[in-house]
Amino acid sequence: MIRIKYLFFLVALITASCATAQKTTRVNAIKANNWGVIYSLPKTSFEVTMLVKKTTYHRGDFYPYAQRYLGIENPITENRVAYTLEKIDVTNKGIPDKENSFMVEFRGRTVEPYVYLREDGLIVTINAEPEEELPADTRLPEGTKPSSNPRRYFSQETLMAGSTAKQAELVARQVFDLRRSRGDILSGEAESMPPDGNAYKVVMEEIDTQERALTELFSGSVETEYFTTTYTIIPDHTDIQEQMIARFSEKLGPLDADNLAGEPVRLTLTNKTPSVDMQLTERELKRLEDKLSEGVVYNVPGKADLRIEFRNQVFVQKEVDVVQFGSQDVLVKRMFENQKQPIQVYFYPELGAIRQIIQ
After folding, report:
1. Cα–Cα distance for residue pair 150/165, rounded to 1 Å
2. Quick one: which of 220, 315, 227, 195 has its CA closest to 267?
3. Is 232 within a domain?
4. Full residue range of the structural domain in which residue 173 is found
5. Which of 19, 220, 228, 313 is the most exposed place for a label (fewest CB within 10 A)?
6. Residue 34 lies in a domain
């Protein structure tokens, strides 16, 4: 195998020429390309995704009368929006390393050699069909919405009332009437009972809907929705100590790191891979370089502890793989020269590490 530097654009060109709607592309090693396929190894990036809850508080039109007419002690008295940081997820995302593009060469007598690449040029398999990846579950929690327009339930008397205070009094009576109707149906004392189970369900749901909508004119209503925002962190070869990756504000939500309106969200990444201080001679360095030029180069990621904190609360604490903290090794070329039973290699595309070898 010949090491190829600065061929990122060539890899992208080859991949684009074969790309389909699929996530991966098969590239055959044929005589026209000297029985070689160019691929890239990744470096590690982390996609930090914040799950944010947005809560909108709506003041009811009759909030000054909430305690007087319905006994509601703490109605919403102002319209406002609040944000809550619910969760932080971290995904290990491999991105092509421009300094680590290679050509895997097969001999002409190798039986139909081929490589599967991702659309960005990262290697997925050699002489094997890639396994189907299940899509990530990106569904957000369901939010809540205020009731429908409560004024649609106003009686004619309420609509004709000359003041807000009078409207509030009449709506409060209507709320009590609805509660009384529910109680009568539950106790079986209503003058007109629902004829069957389905009718009973419809009537009770309508009573609940009207009561909630009218009560929210006094208590106010709360609307919630969820959304995510993602920040990308690309480590180098050193530890990260409490790097501010974003800020967060209860009034504004997620913010960029340089926006002082929010409080910092910090990331720490600590290398756990033992360092090996190798003093190599020129001959040993040449031998190592020759080794990496003959075969299939792959990554051996290092291990690290990753922690993300906000307001002294740890949202993420886990061990992660980091290509930049690891090393590289090689599968020798002769492994791929078996005509009868070609070797199959499966990679972790996000890491460039070997997942499985089948001979």
Report:
1. 17
2. 315
3. no
4. 55-83+143-224
5. 313
6. no
Q: Which pair of structure tokens corresponds to residue 223?
A: 């609307």
Please name which of 270, 285, 204, 222 lies closest in space to residue 84, comparing C-alpha atoms.
222
In a domain, 342, yes or no: no
Question: Within 10 Å of residue 5's Cβ, how many Cβ atoms?
Answer: 10
Q: What is the residue whose two structure tokens read 């991966």?
A: 24
pLDDT digits (tens, 9 = 90+) for 56-93: 999 999 999 999 999 999 999 999 999 999 999 999 99
Q: How many structural domains is the chain composed of?
A: 1
DSSP-assigned states of every residue in 34-71: TTEEEEEEEEEEEEEEEEEEEEEEE--TTGGGHHHHH-
Tokens 């890239």 correspond to 40
Q: Residue 4 domain-assigned?
A: no
Which distant-in-sequence residues (6+ apart) come within 8 Å of 302 by Cβ?
271, 272, 273, 321, 322, 323, 324, 325, 326, 327
Q: Is the pTM of this model over 0.85?
A: no
Length of the chain in terms of residues written: 359
CA angle 28, 353, 269 (to 5 degrees): 140
